[in-house]
Write a structure and sequence with these properties.
Elements lengths: L2 H12 L23 E4 L2 E8 L2 E7 L9 E4 L8 H8 L3 E5 L8 H17 L7 E5 L2 H11 L6 E5 L19 H11 L3 H5 L10 H6 L3 E6 L11 H10 L4 E6 L11 H11 L5
Parallel strand pairs: 4-5, 4-6, 6-7, 7-8, 8-9
Antiparallel strand pairs: 1-2, 2-3, 3-5
Length: about 280
């Protein structure tokens, strides 16, 4: 870990809300654009770099909206870009740090801490991003959000994995993925027996999000044989509703494990509303 990211994480841990730890809190940093070699992504400047050995991507809007809002992709950058492109047009940044192979493990959360701290403390990004997850990306999105619920504006999830026992474990109705399951166990330093009783999956750790009132927006196919809806989105919906947490679920009737099968407008509208960028 670099000295820069170590300092940034220290600031994050001392002041989780970033902008308010009491009267002596450090003022929010001014916006500092990402610099360096850029490529073009749908006509926008894309910056690729590494932080703590992990590939990162930030796409900048042509004109930055007030408060520097951003959407944080948890997985598969570039897949299903409709939401990201609509938000770029509204002045959002799109950010991504690739920790996909770590299945939302504590190590992945620590890496995301460094990325979050870098963007908010060094570049003045808004302290409450929208989190966007496709499939296995929900593991890191939810686990990071549960560790920092006050710093999350909304979680939007498409065919999300919410319990690693469902996928890649394949312990329920889903087919699972043996190779990914081995990688997941390694990332968490768990034996298979220990993983089956592990209580740190997103489905087990919704209370911090409900207490903070973090809105959830899920889209899921009811014929998904890889990430079965009843073991993932359905379980999150039932438990979050029981906790009085706000959740919207859109079921793709007859749909399998396919992303990008929804109307992006309601998702974009929800993100604009909950990030305060709807004006």
């Amino acid at each position: 870990m670099t000295f820069r990211s170590t300092i940034a994480i220290a600031l994050l841990l001392v002041c989780p809300l970033v902008v308010g730890c009491g009267a002596r809190a450090r003022p929010r940093p001014a916006y500092v654009p990402i610099t360096g070699p850029a490529t073009h992504w749908y006509g926008y400047n894309r910056y690729d770099f590494e932080l703590d050995g992990r590939p990162c991507t930030v796409v900048a809007p042509h004109r930055v909206a007030p408060n520097v809002p951003w959407i944080w992709r948890a997985s598969f950058f570039g897949q299903c870009p409709d939401v990201d492109l609509a938000l770029l047009d509204r002045g959002f940044h799109v950010a991504f740090m690739d920790v996909t192979d770590l299945c939302g493990s504590p190590q992945a959360v620590t890496l995301w801490d460094a990325f979050y701290a870098d963007l908010t403390q060094q570049h003045g990004f808004a302290p409450r991003p929208a989190l966007e997850a496709i499939s296995r990306g929900a593991l890191i999105a939810y686990n990071w959000a549960a560790s920092h619920p006050a710093t999350v504006a909304i979680i939007v999830a498409d065919i999300p994995v919410c319990d690693f026992r469902s996928w890649p474990g394949g312990t329920g109705r889903g087919v699972g993925s043996p190779a990914d399951w081995r990688d997941c166990l390694r990332a968490y330093a768990l034996t298979e027996d220990a993983a089956l009783t592990y209580a740190g999956n997103p489905v087990d750790n919704l209370s911090p999000l409900a207490v903070a009132g973090v809105p959830l927006f899920h889209v899921h196919g009811d014929q998904d044989e890889i990430v079965p809806v009843e073991e993932n989105t359905g379980l999150v919906q039932a438990r979050y509703t029981a906790l009085s947490g706000p959740i919207t679920v859109v079921i793709n009737h007859g749909g399998g494990h396919q992303s990008c099968v929804y109307d992006a407008r309601p998702v974009v509208d929800a993100i604009l509303e909950h990030t305060g960028a709807a004006q």
